Amino acid sequence: MRIAVFVSGGGTNLQSIIDAAESGKLSAEVSLVLSSKSDAYALERARRHNIPAVYLSSKEFQSRDYFLHAMFDVLDEHKIDFIALAGYMKKVPPEIVKKYKNRITNIHPALLPAFGGKGMYGMRVHQAVIEYGCKVTGVTIHIVDEEYDHGPIVAQKCVPVSDQDTPETLAERVLAIEHLLYPQVLEWFAQDKVIVSGNIVKVSQ
């Protein structure tokens, strides 16, 4: 399975996926890293592992159609089978979602459907969890559809929230779980263990 990882920032989840692939825990290849920001450190992570690193932003194109064609071209050029969003701050065009139906995943630092949707990312999520008084938060990996943080859920893992937590301390613990869970879920896809039926996801053993 040839994976494209879409990023916008530092790329710690990208690193966990690369490490899993290189160690053999993930039977897939990270064949492309695509960033919506030219200065994302994730691009440097990709280059250090000799993975093609591409900056692609709609701001650089005359029209949406040109941007869309460029995205299709780069995915086709690298023969991408699967897309993993890992801190990608842009909405994936519906045409891409359609072509890669049930083959695009996103990771979210909360237990969806709670604390999801447009504008809910990064520290904003952890701040909201603490302000709401939650005793438990977690990580969600879901299949991407046309809406933010909305598609069928593939896996979730809980993380306790303590009374002493700040958004930063909570983020650190949640991120540690993200780094373990994402490569594991991608391995399920690589082994064709994920069955999607409507909004229901089953993972065969």
Class per helix and strand makeup: alpha/beta
- Give me the CATH architecture, please: 3-Layer(aba) Sandwich
Instruction: Give the CATH superfamily.
Output: Formyl transferase, N-terminal domain
Integer count of domains:
1
Distance between the termini: 19 Å
Description:
- The two termini are 19 Å apart.
- This protein has one domain: Formyl transferase, N-terminal domain (Rossmann fold), CATH 3.40.50.170.
- The strands form two sheets. The protein has a seven-stranded mixed β-sheet with strand order 3-2-1-4-5-6-7, with helices on one face. A two-stranded antiparallel sheet has the order 8-9.
- With 205 residues, the chain is α/β, with parallel strands linked by helices.
- The protein is built from six helices and nine strands.
- Helices cover 36% and strands 24% of the residues.
- Helix 1 runs parallel beside helix 6 and helix 5 packs across helix 6.
- The longest helix has 24 residues.
- The chain is globular, with a radius of gyration of 16 Å.
Feature tags:
Rossmann fold, two-stranded antiparallel sheet, 6 helices, 36% helix
